[in-house]
Amino acid sequence: MDIKKSDIDDTKLLEAMHAYIREPGKETLFGLVMALKDSKVFVPVMINQQKKALQPYVIKNKDEDIYVPAFTSVSKFPKDQQYQGMQKLQYKQCVSMLLGNGASIKGIVLNPYTDNLMLKEQMLELSSQVEKEVPARRSVTMKTEDFRMITRHNTELRQIPERFYAGRQEFIKELSAELLCEMYKEPYSGVDQEALFEYVVEDFDIMELDIRDDLNIVQIMLPSRHLYKTNCREMYLVWNPQNEQAGCYVVEKDTSLDGKRYLLKEIRPDGSWDSLEDAPAEGNTMNRVIELFTDGMEE
Questions:
Q1: Side by side, which strands form the sheet with 53-56?
Q2: Rounded Cα–Cα distance for residues 288 and 96 (Å)
Q3: How does 223-257 read in b/e, with b if 16+ C-beta sit within 10 Å?
Q4: Considering Cα of 222, then 198, then 188, then 99, what sign does the dihedral take?
Q5: Which of 8, 160, 229, 296 is most buried, with most CB under 10 Å away?
Q6: First to last CA, the chain
Q7: What is the pLDDT of residues 170-215, one digit of tens each?
Q8: What are the backbone angles phi and psi of residue 69, rounded to the nearest 5°?
Q9: Angle between the N-to-C axes of helices 26-37 and 91-99, in degrees from 0 to 180, rounded to the nearest 10
């Protein structure tokens, strides 16, 4: 089969995805969920010789978390893709399949080589809920904790790293607890939900250190209130003033059932991330981040 002849028109979905990436909030989240509800995606598949059936390819990070890649159109395939096959599915079919797999697969990554939008378990469950209720426009209700979790996740893992990598030292100069509080509040203000926003400037603690001529680091202690799974407890912005090398590291609350596990992750300039290891005990993270960043710097 010529895959190009069965291509998908992903115009509306991409608009919703990019709107959500730019300004994560209740309005854009609703738009994304509704766009996904009626969308189809390409899922790369292989033949399971033992079961004599198709199974999806997966992406696994260093923490062994597993995600299924999905592509919104042929143009989003990697140039060197060597998948055995591509299965075109309704997005809701993917959600049903993944939610029923147990705890092994953590979610879907849409266009992993371009947009790299991760839809974790909470997002899949929200999509499933919307599909079951078949709601009228604007009638979707989202739990307050879900809204807080999702908006905070996007501020910490997308908005702040994006601004840091774009501005480097200029961003550090303007960085303050007031600025961070405003960034966290913006998604609430955009959808007239300021009443749900309960953080204050005092929830953010920033410490900047000039370790040496070629190493500066900013430690950001993030709000301990409303700290849900996939939200961050700490963030570290590191850079070398001599060559502009930069790094962003976060301590993220894992999706484990007991909610006590934290992971140390690196957020890359392209928005992708790498789960490095279990986070050190509180108070020891900065030293480990410095070790990671400076590894290989010495001649």
A1: 53-56, 40-48, 85-90
A2: 40
A3: beebebbbbbbbbbbbbbeeeeebbbbbbbbbbee
A4: positive
A5: 160
A6: 54
A7: 999 999 999 999 999 988 886 677 888 999 999 999 999 988 888 9
A8: -75, 145
A9: 100
Q: State the sign of the Cα–Cα–Cα–Cα dihedral 161, 224, 189, 36.
A: positive
How far is the CA of 36 from the CAs of 10, 109, 132, 182, 262, in angstroms?
Answer: 10, 13, 14, 29, 30
Rounded distance between C-alpha atoms, residue 157 and residue 19, angstroms: 16
For residue range 58-103, what is the model confidence (pLDDT) as tens digits?
Answer: 887 666 778 889 999 999 998 877 787 888 888 887 887 776 555 5
* Lowest mean per-residue pLDDT among 41-45, 46-50, 271-275, 287-291: 46-50
| Predicted local distance difference test score (pLDDT) of residue 118 | 83
Query: From the centroid of its chain, how far is CA 90?
Result: 22
Residue 88, Cβ density class (10 Å: 0-12 exposed, 13-18 middle, ≥19 buried): middle
Report the C-alpha gap between 161 and 220 in whole angstroms: 12
Confidence band of 131 (pLDDT split at 50, 70, 90) = low
Question: What pLDDT, on a 0 to 100 scale, did the predictor assign at position 251?
Answer: 96
Can you give the pLDDT at residue 73?
Answer: 92
Give the separation between CA 24 and CA 11, rounded to whole angstroms: 19
Q: Classify burial at 37, counting beta carbons within 10 Å of its beta carbon; exposed 0-12, middle 13-18, buried 19 or more.
A: middle
Is 106 or 124 the better-scoring residue by pLDDT? 106
| C-alpha to C-alpha distance for 108 and 106, rounded to whole angstroms | 7
List phi, psi (to 5°) of 293.
Answer: -70, -40
